[in-house]
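Archive transcription. Copying these from loose printouts into the bound notebook so they stop getting lost. Printout 1 of 2:
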Amino acid sequence: MILALYLFTNLLTEFITNNAAAVIMFPIAYKISLIQSIPLLPLAIIVAIAASASFSTPVGYQTNLIVYGPRGYSFKDF
């Protein structure tokens, strides 16, 4: 469940800003914590880390796109 929460949040940050992804995913993390009887703090931290990791791909951050083509980077370099 934690891995799915991380992956979905990280995927969401590729399309919208990281702040918006965190705002959308936090209520979902809260509901997961209630249903699964998991403490909320670890899930909130997972959402924050996943939302902040949008810079780790060339698509997730505009500066990465600027240097992606001209410098000859590949996707695995990020």
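Printout 2 of 2:
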Amino acid sequence: MTSTVAPTAPLPAAALPALARLHSAFPVVQAVTVYETAAVHAAQLAARAESGHMSDLDADDLAHAEELMAGARATLAAAGRLDLIGSA
């Protein structure tokens, strides 16, 4: 079995600034995703706590979700993009 890899052309110089802008946005996009996912999980666990059925593992999960949210919020604050998660 042989594998054929098609060579790619070099990126035009005019495209480099656009690529740099996209590359710089990746941490922001990732932080929004982490924040939103952790927020949903934290809300689910908070509801479990209110029902009185929270286990020690659930409590650890809630603490971890809150840590993830804080880290993502810090990333977004540093980027000046708290608007992406509805915080100011």
